[in-house]
Specification:
Layout: H1 3-13, H2 25-47, E1 50-55, E2 60-65, H3 68-75, E3 82-83, H4 84-87, H5 92-95, H6 105-115, H7 121-139, E4 147-149, H8 151-167, H9 172-186, H10 190-194, H11 205-229, H12 240-246, H13 254-267, H14 270-285, H15 287-298, H16 302-315, E5 324-326, E6 330-332, E7 335-337, E8 342-345, H17 347-351, H18 392-407, E9 410-414, E10 422-425, E11 428-431, E12 436-441
The structure holds protoporphyrin IX containing FE.
Residues 84, 100-101, 112, 263-264, 267-268, 271-272, 275, 313, 318-319, 322, 381-384, 387-391, 394-395 line the site of protoporphyrin IX containing FE.
């Protein structure tokens, strides 16, 4: 063979990028940060199934993916090529460099293995009564007979649950001080999060105030860690902190422990609360589904309630996309993408695609009870592969129990049939007005038990 064909073949191995909007990076960052749920579907229609964006900081190249077969290439790809930890860099200033979300390869696997026992099937069964008890305690104080946002009520329950799962029974005064600080840290705006990439900003206004709150939260966490290190009978305790301190071969530093605790506190409550807020929002707008859900709640049949939680996450994915940074060139979606590019499986685009979910705008939990339910390739609110959400099972269990406890007690009505708009809160997409619904106590005759 002559040298010429070889020379011609070289460009084939060269890297290539999909098309994307030509707009300035600042505009693209703004639209992506605040309006991705509206902008990304438009981009897909205009540019196709893979789209290139340029996003701050450092004008990163991001490739959006909308087809399950392309997303599978990412989730089943090598964890040395597809770095999720690097893809989550925006969370670094909040969660810390040792967080399971920020690590990659062997370091990631090691920490993930240490955390997993707290979220396996046996552990989940143990948490059901805890969730039911906390929900019952809280529903007594809820406003009834008038429209009010249900999102804050869900946040209060899920925060209490995750505090108990992470710390177990502990110093009440410290927990009381920790609660509002975690709430403030978790409601950080995307703008404050981006400031993590621009250190000089940290000395000013809202950024400085945010750091002060974070420091106060850290002081309390370090105090709890110090006390627990000297506590007796840790082996009899099942909370995450005690488990991490007693795991064989684990000798985590205080900083490493702090980062995992913050990760679980932040990743483990706002997400579930938001999914539940959307679930109640949809139940209130769909009386026939509400009636079915109340009937199964009375009958203690959790399968349908699980389907309600899943369908809420399909229709309103709390996290719209996941990210992996390429450490070397890789074939994805028919392109040979260069190292340094971030690939983004866009959960929201797949979940709203009619090809995978017939009548995608309808809230229809039954689709998860069909003989042929959505697969893990077309329904993946918890991401995928070796980075799939560690709390997925926990979150679904928690949602079923909370739905059951609330639906056996209350009727839920919407103020308007129109869906509530979205608001980007940190990395989650929440109902803008907190999912306003009216709760009224159910009449005894209408309850089965
Ligand atoms: C509706 C609720 C939740 C949603 C929608 C959600 C979603 C996600 C997503 C999309 C990821 C990234 C997966 C990927 O990159 O492929 C993730 C990771 C993670 N989530 Fe969740 N999550 C939820 C609840 C929870 C809960 C309750 C916990 C803990 C109790 C939790 C802990 C984590 C952790 C530790 C990771 C990092 C896993 C790793 O990198 O190995 N999440 N979650």
């Amino acid at each position: 063979m002559s040298a010429a064909p070889h020379a011609a073949a070289a460009p084939d191995r060269a890297t290539s990028l999909p098309p994307g909007p030509p707009w300035p990076m600042v505009v693209q960052t703004f639209l992506f940060g605040g309006y991705r749920h509206r902008w990304l579907p438009t981009l897909r229609r205009r540019y196709g199934d893979a789209v290139l964006l340029r996003i701050a900081p450092r004008s990163r190249r991001m490739v959006l993916l909308a087809r399950p077969e392309h997303i599978r290439e990412v989730f089943s790809g090598s964890s040395t090529t597809f770095h999720a930890g690097e893809g989550n860099a925006i969370l670094g200033p909040l969660m810390g460099p040792h967080s399971v979300l920020l690590l990659d390869e062997d370091d990631h696997l090691k920490v993930r293995r240490q955390l997993m026992p707290a979220f396996n099937g046996a552990a989940l069964r143990g948490y059901r009564d805890l969730v039911a008890g906390i929900t019952r305690e809280q529903v007594g104080g809820w406003p009834v007979g008038r429209h009010a946002p249900i999102h804050p009520r869900m946040q209060a329950i899920t925060l209490e649950v995750i505090l108990r799962v992470v710390f177990g029974v502990t110093d009440r005064a410290r927990l009381a001080a920790l609660r509002p600080l975690v709430e403030r840290v978790v409601s950080v705006s995307p703008l404050i999060m981006v400031a993590g990439f621009y250190p000089p900003l940290r000395n000013y206004g809202p950024w400085r105030r945010h750091l002060e709150v974070q420091e106060r939260m850290d002081d309390l966490l370090y105090a709890e860690i110090a006390e627990r290190r000297t506590a007796d009978s840790l082996a009899d305790r099942h909370d995450v902190l005690s488990r991490l301190l007693t795991t064989p071969e684990s000798s985590l530093t205080d900083e490493e422990l702090r980062d995992q605790l913050v990760t679980l506190l932040l990743a483990g409550h706002e997400t579930t609360a938001t999914g539940l807020a959307w679930a109640f929002h949809e139940l209130a707008r769909n009386p026939a589904v509400l009636a079915s859900a109340q009937r199964v709640a009375d009958e203690r049949d959790d399968a349908y309630l699980g389907a309600v939680a899943k369908e809420a996450l399909r229709l309103h994915p709390v996290i719209y996309e996941t990210a992996r940074v390429l450490t070397e060139p890789a074939e994805v979606a028919g392109y040979r993408l260069p190292a340094g590019v971030t690939v983004m499986p866009v959960i929201g685009l797949v979940h709203s695609d009619e090809e995978h979910h017939p009548r995608p705008r309808e809230f229809r939990p039954e689709r998860f009870l069909d003989p042929d339910p959505p697969s893990s390739h077309t329904w993946f609110p918890f991401g995928g592969g070796v980075r799939r959400c560690l709390g997925a099972g926990f979150s679904l269990m928690e949602s079923e129990v909370i739905l059951r406890e609330v639906l056996t007690r209350f009727d839920v009505r919407a103020g308007t049939s129109r869906p509530e708009a979205l608001k980007a809160r940190n990395v989650t997409l929440a109902p803008r007005r907190g999912a306003r619904v009216m709760l009224t106590p159910r009449r005894p005759g209408r309850r089965l038990r």
